[in-house]
Each structure stands twice: as structure tokens, then as C-alpha cells.
Amino acid sequence: MIAMEQQLARTGSINVADCCTMQVNDGPSSHPIFVAPANGNAQRSSGYVPGRIVPVRSPPPTKAPPPPPLKPKPQATPPAQPSSVFNLTEDDSRRERAQNQQRKNTYICAGVFFGLFFLTLILVLSLTSKDVLDENCPHHNPLLRTWKPGHDPNKAVVVHSGQHYCLTSSTTLYSITIKAGGSVVFDDDNKGSKNITLRTRHILVEDGGALHIGAPKCRYRSLATITLVGRSDETSVTEVPGMGRKFLGVYGGGTLELHGSERLSWTLLTRTVPSSGLATSGHAFHKNFSRGINLRVVDQDTSEVLHVDRFDTHEFRNESKRLSELLKNLSSGRIVALAIGDSAVKSLLEETKRTIQDVLGSTHVTDLKYRQAWALVSVIGGGNGSCTEDVREHENHDTGGKALARRDFITTDGVRFTVTAYSEWRNGYPTSGFLVDATDKVVLNLQDDVSSWKPGDRIVIASTDYSMHQAEEFTLLPCPYCNRKQVRIQGKPQFTHIGEILDGVDMRAEVALLSRNILIHGEMEKSCYGKNWCQYFSHDTFGGHIKILGNFSSVHLSHVELKHMGQQREKGRYPVNFHRCGDVDQRGGYNNPTYVDSLSIHHSFSRCVAIHATNGLLVRDTIGYDTLGHCFFLEDGIEQRNVFFHNLGLLTRPGTILPTDRNDSMCAEITERVHKGYIPSPATECKAVSTFWIAHPNNHLISNSAAGSQDAGIWYIFHNSSTGDSHGLVPDTKAELTPLGAFFNNRVHSNFKAGLFIDRKVKSTNATAADPREYLCLDNSARFRPHENADPSKPRVAAVIDTLISFKNNDLGAWIRGGDIIIRNSGFADNGVGLSFASDGSYPKDEGSSQEVSQSLFVGESRNRGTNGGQNKYWGVGGVDGKMRTLPRNKTFPIRGFQINDGPVRIFNCTFQAFSTTTERLTTAVGFSLKNIWQLTPRNNLSSLSFQPGVTLRAFFGRPGEWFEQNDLDGDKNSIFHDLDGSISNYTDTYVARADNFLIRHPQCVDVPRWNGVVCSGKYSQVYIQTQGASNLSLTIRRDEYPDKPMVLRGIRSQTSPSQQYQPVLMTSKSYTVHWNGPAPRETVLSLINFDKGDWTLLGLCYPDETNFQITSDIYNKQNNGFESIEDYGPVQSMSDLENQQNKRKYFFDKSVGLLWLYAQARNRRDGYSYCSTAGCERVKIIAHIHASKKTQTCNCTASAYPKYSKTASTIVPMPKPNTEACKTCGASQLVFSSEPWNSYLQTQIKSLSVKEEQSNDTQAYITVNAERFDLNQPGFLLVTVDACSGRVTRSSLFTKMDFRMEQYLKTGIMKRSIVLLATRGRPADITGVAQYLVSLGSVKVPDLQKKEAIAVFGFLSHGSPSPQPWTAVLACQGAEVLGLREKFIPLSLDEYSCPTQKDPLKRSDVELLRKSLSQQ
């Protein structure tokens, strides 16, 4: 039996009591529990699984040997003895002694057995059925000693080798150091009742030490709190090397395993929550001396206040009659609230009292007295049971409190609200008031099962507007009527939070759980103090921090809450900081790769998760909310292969640590690390704080959300060498050449500068007199050009941005510089500028690279109108519907969907909608950078674009005025794009340019005044004109066919620069003259850009008449930075000679005019999107030897050149005929751009039509399902049913009235699991008869359709009992109201629909990509 007990103990299959109560002496040779061998470098066994216990036990006790066998011996004849005496021989004595010993041993064995048996029985009986020894649970290890160190803030505890402590009670200590062979485990039980708080200055886990709270397979159930204490100004507290103060730290070889209860980290709203919680915005009224009976009539279906009135029944009998008549005429079911102000009974007629009694069920109205306070809330026709009223006696101008009446109601959409009326005399003043609100009633409908969220938990709802400050926190309340995807919040929202897909773009607000049952937080002072940057922060910023150093044994953190963490005054003191850990996945020898999972990091003071010189870390489902500085942060520019999966960051505020963290004031005022006397420029060196700061492209971002940052949501920044603590370790990171990791299904919204930003690098040198800027400030010289293996000699690898959702970003939805870069399957809405590409210079570093966007949607101004307030600065009229809305940047800011900055870019198969100008603001689908000095290539190709009816301005080329200024910079004037198929201009294979650009015109061009544009056929290229030896020089270029329409160019460089570059777009096969506003430059280089082989232009450059020339042609090879094929130009004597020798390198100098004529002609083939030929960039170099007397002469030859060289305008390529048929294949193929691209949605639209609308010449009534339209051409009802599982339209039915046929159809004719869409036209007979059937389609109650002019219903008929869905709605209008076009994007195949099981299960593309990313590590 003893052996059996030992075997059972080894196998762990017996029931035991809570092992934390077992006092076990672990010998000095024992290894620490839960950790690898003390040497942090030791290789882990293949079966090592962090979080799984391998119990360490003392050797079993030695089993007692059996007694030796008894040997028989010869016996002598015994002497005669008296019969009464009992004698033993010696052998008998020995035998007896042996038998006694055997019996003794038997008794001992039996005692041990029964002792162990009863002990085991007691342990078994003391446990519940679930409290069994689990080797996955750290607190079940039998070697743990119960630890109750008590409260001594001056006691520093050191856990030595062989000491394995189970902390069972709250404690306060100075510090805890866990050394090699030691471990600390927090106690737990199945009930989650072992709530423990540990207060300490720091916890340090050294090499071979371990700290455990729960495990991956044994989640911690109780509440564990670690409070890190300390102030930044405590000089007597010594810092721990490498860690500092107020921390939880892990040295190399240490183990940290923290695993709270599994709870959904964050999800999305599925129903919009309006500000105040009510779509009608609620109602509040409070007034003194409002004499008489004050009244409010409330719509029971919507909570809208329909009627506001006051009846002075104290003074006027007619007022009493008027009140009586109003109550009698109200529809049954209407909510009525009454409240007396001052007095109301003097002229209150008995008839009116009886009406109030009969209609509202009042019992107090007949006995009301002078100046009594009385309040009532009731329902018309509801009787006494529906009436709530209260009366307060008036005495000495006081009623001793309020007469308060309150009742709860629910709308047809299931929104609960309260109607309150009150009346009171107080301190001699009568007051009365009403309140219609949803305080403590608001229920959130959510995308996922949130049954793990509990009352008392804290959540945050993200902003869905321009201001990130509209994020709101709430506490959850009990909700017995909520389903598994609903929660009820305390209070009510101040701002609207969108919970649906609007105009095809998923704008649903993120909802995150902040609470966890493991909490690590910093103990904070009430206000800022000392050297904690109090000039910028009013609060204490010296929080706690977690720091993990390299070569740790095992670190896994999951479902932990981190609050008040991070230290703003110190680098490297972050809520979670993996500090120079190297490879932490299988490449680093970790069979169970390191991860951070479902952390809640909030109200913290320096970042969220910092990854410093660490590779292969998985960060998933983690929340970073209300933090300072870059949130998810890659530090030194060498971090690679890290995976960010389904994380959420919101309310990312500026911080002080790095220049890129800082705002304007911080940037200009923090100057300790700039060169003496230098004042930083915030716009170019700082102002880059981002929720995701990605310092190397070889990292993976999948299904993340950046939901509000002061600057950018996701910023890819480039380091040309390792920086920070890794400075010099990697001299060349090749980051700009490295292919982009996975970028899929990320959301960016409510960011001030940009949603997604791919551009810039950081300065990697210290400040000097030559470059006084601070180390690690922004630098503008990075150009992302990914190639295979980061080798520019190998093929390009396109950076793919797939399924980006970008909305409500103040400035830019996305700004992306470099190439090749591809954006696809993405949605942009309500951004200042939706998307802007930028190339990498006038001569791209990566010749032939380009940028592309396809299969995407651009929305100018969506139906998300936002909420005024919450630091939204601008509120004005929208362009599409003319309603008030929040605005980006400024009321007059010109909104653009796709912005062309330079090029080359390609945009095709994209859809534009809701771009409509107002009297104050220009809104255009395709536009250009404002005040642009840069070149624009005619190789910007646009095709297969779809413009919805709400687009009133497809393209715009600027105009003088606000934002555009004079609209006269070089890039402004040369704005151009190629309309390949006429989907923009209606003319195939044409170029669209600014109307006043006569360098590209011909007689057949078509003007489009509304665009300030012109559409021309032809062939176009660029000539870069680079000059040396002249400053403050402007160039004037004239086309010989339009000499009176010149273009004046300032150049792209500073006017004081001795060199300059001009970049005009020219029509090929035409002649031009070039003039200067000062002396001609000594050296001029003409570069042929975007010339195909054989393309030419004839150029005449103005010089003084006695000038001599040295002219050569060459080919610039960018790869070796050399010049090849150098040839001289020779002179000819006349223009005709030059024209006859066009293909030769000749020039003609017309001294009489001062024009040097030559042909700029391409002799080599150009491929793809290369600016230059396959041989290199073809150039013509002109060195002018100007006579000394003419060197200051202004060289403008216009007066002498024309009319001599004037030509009649002609058309080389005739204009095509305008397109006559609509493009059926244009636009994005998908209608919905959601954050769940693996799910299917149905685009549905209902346009009902009232009689008044028909009388105003509106003839359109219809229902559409995924663009399939069903018209309602006569008065009546139109019902369209759709299979909610497949999205297939199953039936379209027309009924002229609510008759028996329609009644039977509503009862039995609709298939189960159907989406039901209903529209009306005119006012069909018996429209009210439909109401009772709407409950089965999702209405929470029977709606009141009396006097309704039109209705629209989005319904769902479930497989079983009625199942209202978040998207179901009954919409109605009456009087002068109109419903207009209503649109919903309805999800298909939800679990709630009980659809049949699919043969092929749904594949989550993001999860598949996650697996792929992890497998490549």
C-alpha cells in the first residue's frame, strides 16, 4: 500500500488538498519549480512546456525490510516443570522475540498505512470535485511552502535556492528578489477567492528564479494585484542596475509566467450608440416659475418628444380646456408627462381633472391644492396601471423635496429609456422639469460573445470621429435581459459611436475590456511633482514598469491588466519592455515562443509594449489605451519578424522621451540634446507620435486597430543603421530595401495627422554645428524601395497593403512614399485626404518603381456625421445631404479622395462616392497636392473608375484662394494624369491637365471649367532643365503654337540656390522656347524623362548673341553614378538644316534672335514605369561661354522670337469621340470593405415614398439588394425576402394594400431565416395593419403606425422564436418628414441565424496569415 501511495503521488492522480498548505522541506540539491536549469543559456529539452509543472520531490522513504526467516533447531528434552509454570527455551524466546518484532513491524506498517489512508481520505473529502491535483497549476505543486510574510515596507525579501513559496495572503514588502533555484507562486482556488495584493518597490527575478501567477493551462481565477510603489524624487532609494526603480524585472535566465482568466480582449459594436444613448438625443428641461401645468408628449416607439407645452391653469380657464382637448386627441399609447410649476389649480376645471383621470389614470389630480407640487408620467389609455405620480405638500414656500414621477419604456428597436417629471418648491422658488434619457439604460450590441465580461468591469469605447478624445470609459452594470453579445453600461455616452458599416466602409467602434483579474499597477501621487515634466503633465508620470532582459528562460504574459505603468522621465521604463532579447522564438531556442497576449495597458505614462533589439515576439489581442508616446514601439530599427495580431491602440498622446514623441511645445522647448542655440522645427523633426511605431519593415501587422493618435495610427519609419543602445551593432540595416512583412486587415481612424504613414527616417548622428538637430529626430531622406533579400540588384518585391480600413483621419487616410507599393481591397472614408502616394524624388532611387491602388473604395463625406465636441474643432454643413457634421482640418479645407503628388501612380477598379462641394469647401474625388513645387509625371494612369451619383466633382486642378494660395507653383501648373479608358473624362486615352497649361494643348482639347481642367489627346513627356551658375532665376517656356500663353516656373529649389531644376510637362513632337528673367545660366542640362524611343521636342534656349557653346549628349548610369555614350553636338547654319538633320546631334544658334535650337530626342527604349531608358538617363549638356559684356544681360528673347517662330496650332493625335455607354466593369468589385473580410455582407437599400414626396415630383421608390433593384411603381407595399445564410433573393412581392393576401403572406409565406425588406409608396390602405406582424420580424413591440406617411422595415424572420438582430429597424415618418434613402449592410450566416452547417468551414484569412507568419520565424 505504501508503494501504491508513492506511485499515486508520482502520477498525480489522487485527490489532494490545496498544496499551498503543505510544509515541505526541499533539499539544497532541488531544482527550482517551473524553470529551466539555472544557467539561462542551457538548451531546453524538446518536451519543455512553460507553465507545465514537473514536480520536484524528495526521494521516497526507505521501506522497512521484512524480518529474517526463522530456522528450526533441534530441541532438548525440557526438564520437568510444574504444570502451572510456563517456561520458554532460548530458541523459543528468540522465536517469540522475532514474532513480537514481526507483530510490531506489522503494527507499524498498519499504522502508517491507516494514517496515510485517513490523511488521504481527509484530503479528498476536503476538496470539491474539481479541486484535484493538476500538474499544469503552479499552486498545486506539493513542494510549495505557505508564505505569509505580513506587512513590513522596510523588509527586503530574498528567495534563495530551494525556497519555493506560495503567497497566500496580501503583503507589503520593500522588495522581493528571487534567486536561482527559488520561486514564488500566487495562491489560487477554483472559486477564485484567494484575492492577494502585494505592495512592493520592486520584484526582481534573477537567473534561475521564477515568478508564477497562473499558467496557460491553469488560468488564475482569483484577484491578484501587484502594486509598485515609489516616487521619482526618493534619492535614498538605490536603483537596481539595468532596472531602475518601481519595477517587475527579469534578468537573463529568469522565468515570468502571468496568466489571468481568459476574457475577450476587445470587439466591435454592431449597433450605433448615439450621443446620450438615444437617437432622438433625449430631452432635459428645468425652469423656475413655469406657472401652471407643464406638459411633454413622448413617442413611445422612438423616445422623441413630440409636443412641448405649458397650460396656465392657475390663471385661465381656457388653458384648462385646451389641455383637456389636447389629451383627448392624443393617440393611444403616447407617453405624457405633467409637472406643476408654481400653482395650477385655481382655474383647473373639473372636466379637465376628469379627463386627466380617465385618459392618464391619475388618482391625485382631483385633490390638488394651491401650490402643491405634482408630477405625473403616464400612457394614454393605459389606465391606473400605467400612471406614476407624486404629490408634495406646500408649506412656507417649500415642499420638502421633489414630487417625482418616473417610468421606464422601450423603443421598437429595443432601446430602453426613462421619462421623468418633477415639481418642487425650494427656498421660496417653484421649479419644474422633465427628463427623457437613457442613463444606466444603454445596452451595447457587440460582435463577439462577451459573457466573460462581468458587472463592475471597466470598458472603453473608441471614438469614431475625427477627435480621438471622443473615446469614453464606462463601468458595466448587471443586465438580466442582455444576451451573450450585449452589455449594459453605467451612465450614458456623451458622443456617438458608430456600430455599423456606413457607405460600404466598416466604421464600427472598437469596444475594449480594461479589467483583468491580474493587475500590476504603479501607486501614484495625486498630482505632478519634481522633475516629471510638470510643465506638460498635471499628473504624476512616474509609474511602474516591467522589463525583461535577454536570454531569459521563459516569459509569457496573458490576460494581465497594467495600469499607471511607464516612467516619462526615463528611457527604457515602459509598461512592458523586451530589452535586447534577441530571438525569442524558435530561432532563439524557445520551443514555446515568447508572447504577450490579451494585456490591458491603460492610463500609462510611457508607451505600451516596447520591443527593443528583439525578434520573433508575438503580441496579440493587447490593448493600449490613454498612453504617452509611441504605444506599440520598435526601438532601434533592427527589430524583425515580430508579429502584431489583433491589437488595439487608442488615445495615444504625445510624450517627451524622443523627438518623434513630442508635440509642438515639447519639441521647441526640450533642447538639451540639440546643438547649442538651435531651436527645433516641430513640423519636420517631431510630431510623429504613433500608436504603432514600426522601425523596420520586416514585421507583421495583421488585424490591428489604431483608433486614435495625436499624429499617426501606424507609422513605418526607417533607420539606415541601428540606433539607441544598439548603435553601431548593425552599420547598415538596409531597412529601405527590405520587403514589407505581412500587412493585412488593419484599421486606422481618428488620428490627427495620418492613419497610415510610410515615409521618413530618424537621424542617426548626434547634434553638431553642421547638423544641430537632435539624435533620433525625424529626417526626410528615406525612400522605401523593397527588393528581394534587400539587394537592389535583385528583383523588386512589391509592398502589399491589403485590406486597410481608414476613416475619420483629420489630414491623411494614408501617406505612402516609395515603390513598388500596392494597396488593394481597402476602404477610405471621411479623411481630409483619403490616400496620397509620393515617389522618391525627381530621379527615383529605384528606377522603374511605381505605386498602385486597386479594388478600393473612397468616400468623401459618409453618413457618419460625428458629434460636435470632444475636441473636434470644426462643425459645418456637409456636401451630400446638407446636414451639419464634423469636418477635417477646417470648414474650408478641400477634401480629396485620391491625391496625386508626383508619380508614377496607377489607380484602377476603384469606386468614389459622396464627394460634393459646398459654398465654403471644394470636395473632389481626384485631386493634387496643394502648393506643390514638385514634378508631376504624365505616367499617372487612371482607369476603370466608378463615380457614384453623389460625386459632383470628379477632379479639380485648384484655383487661387484659401489653401491653394496663388496656385502658381511649378507642380500646380503641371498637374496632369492619363485617363486610360475615359472613365473620368469620358474620353478614352486622353490626358487631363490644368486649363491654363498651353504647353500640352491643341485645338481639339475639351475644356472642363468645373474642374479648372482640360482634356487633351496626344503624347506627353517631361524635360528636366537643370541649371548651374545662376540664382534667383525663373524660367519662362512658350509653345510656338501658343506664344502668348507662357508658363513661368520658379524651380524646385530655393531661389537663392546656385543650381536649379525645372520640370515642365511637354507635348512631344512640338517646339518650345525657353527664356530667363535674368542672365542665362552658364551650364544647362536637359534630361529626357518619360520619353519613349523616337520621341522628341524641339527646344530653343535664349542666350546673348555672342555666346559660344559646348554641347554634348550622354547617358547617366545611376547604378555606377557614371556617364556613358558621350557625344558632341555640331552646329548647323539654319533652322532648315537642323530640321533636315533631326536624328543627328546638331544645333542651330540664331544670333539674330538669341535662340539656341536643338532636338531633345530619345534614342533608347524605355520600359514600364522607368523615368529613363534602359540604357540610362539620356541628357543634353549645354555649356555656354558668354561674352564678358553680356554676362549680366537678361535673356528673354520673346520679343524677337515671335512672330518669327510662331506656328499654327495643330492636332497630332485627334480627340476620340466621347464614350456613350456606361462602363459595366468599372469600380471596385466588392461593395463592402469590412474588418472581417472573411465574412459576407449584403448591401440593402430601401427608398419609400410618401404622398408629399410624390407631389414634389419624386418618383423613385425601390428596394435594392447588392445593386439588384426592385421598383415600386404604384401605391402599396413592396416586400423583398433574402436567404440570410446565402444572400440569395428568394422572393419579391407587391401588395396594393394590407388585405387578406398580404396578411397570409406575412403569417406563413416567408421562409424562416429570411432577411425581410419592406418599402411603401403613397399611403397604402390600412398601413397600421402591418404593425402586429413586425414583431416577428425583429421589432421589440408592436409599433404605432397611425398617421404614418411611409415606413421602411429591415427585418429578420428567425428559425425559431423572434430574434431581433442589431441591424433590424422599423423606420417611419409623418407630417413633413421624409425617410429618404436608407441603407444597411447586413451580415450573412451569423451563428444567430442557425444556418445549416457548411461543408467547407469558414477560413479566417487573418488567422491563416498569422500561422504563416509564425511558421516563417
Question: Could you explain how this protein is built, in words?
Answer:
- The chain has 1417 residues and is mainly beta.
- The strands form 10 sheets. The chain has a 45-stranded mixed β-sheet that branches. Strands 65, 68, 69, 71, 73, 74 and 78 form a 7-stranded antiparallel β-sheet that branches. Strands 67-66-70-72-77-76-75 form a 7-stranded mixed β-sheet.
- A hairpin with a 6-residue loop joins strand 14 (292-298) and strand 15.
Task: Identify the notable features of this structure and list them briefly.
mainly beta, 7-stranded antiparallel beta sheet, disordered N terminus, 1417 residues, globular
Number of strands: 87
Structural class: mainly beta
Morphology call:
globular
Relative strand content: 25-35%
Total count of helical runs of at least 4 residues: 12
Low-confidence stretches: 1-93, 122-130
Question: Mean pLDDT, as a whole number?
Answer: 90
Helix content: under 10%
The rounded distance between the terminal residues' Cα atoms is 51 Å
What's the main sheet like? 45 strands, mixed
Radius of gyration: 40 Å
